[in-house]
Amino acid sequence: MNRNISLYEAIGGSETVRLLVESFYPKVQAHPLLGPLFPQNIDPVIEKQYLFLTQFFGGPSLFSDQYGHPMMRARHLPFPITPERAEAWLDCMRRALQEVGLDEQLQAIVLDRLSGPAHHFVNTSEEET
Ligand code: HEM
Fold first, then answer.
1. Domain spanning 8-128: which superfamily?
2. CA distance 32 to 104
3. Where does heme bind (predicted)?
4. What string of DSSP letters covers 73-120?
5. FRET partner for 92 with CA separation of 20 to 30 A, picked from 18, 70, 83, 98?
């Protein structure tokens, strides 16, 4: 990856982030461990994730501009996130990245960047669910 540009620019900016979230959430909804945590109307979640990932990958700070400091771990506390669910989330993202057809090296970089936060959001052990 060209080190002078952000990951956001490297993956193709707004258009790619849009395709990614639209490919990702149907997989999340269909996943037996993840689907039940999400509302039936997934559109507002897709929109927030679009704003967040834009910012997270180094694009404009769309999420913070609308919702303030992300505090993503805190925002996830109402939901029982087990290690298994973190892996399931990352697996849906891996499949979405493939579906969008991103360059393989970039797919690996994106997954790696998301893997830290996903595990950091774990707040429940499997025995508690
Ligand atoms: C580890 C597994 C994860 C699970 C099970 C999970 C689950 C959820 C759930 C249930 C919601 C709330 C949906 C709603 O009712 O509005 C949510 C919101 C959200 N998640 Fe996750 N999530 C995970 C990881 C991540 C990661 C790694 C990121 C990004 C780095 C992320 C970003 C977001 C964003 C931006 C929102 C919207 C927050 C808001 O409402 O302000 N999530 N997530």
1. Globins (1.10.490.10)
2. 27
3. 119
4. HHHHTTS---HHHHHHHHHHHHHHHHHHT--HHHHHHHHHHHHHHHHH
5. 70
Residue 85 alpha carbon to ligand 1 centre in Å? 11
Copy the structure tokens of residue 77: 């506390």
Q: How confident is the model at residue 16 (pLDDT cuts 50, 70, 90)?
A: very high
For residue 126, the 8-state DSSP code is G
pLDDT in tens, 79-105: 999 999 999 999 999 999 999 999 999
- Name the residue of 17, 63, 66, 76 to mutate for ligand 1: max ligand atoms within 8 A of Cβ: 76
Residue with tokens 């893997």: 115
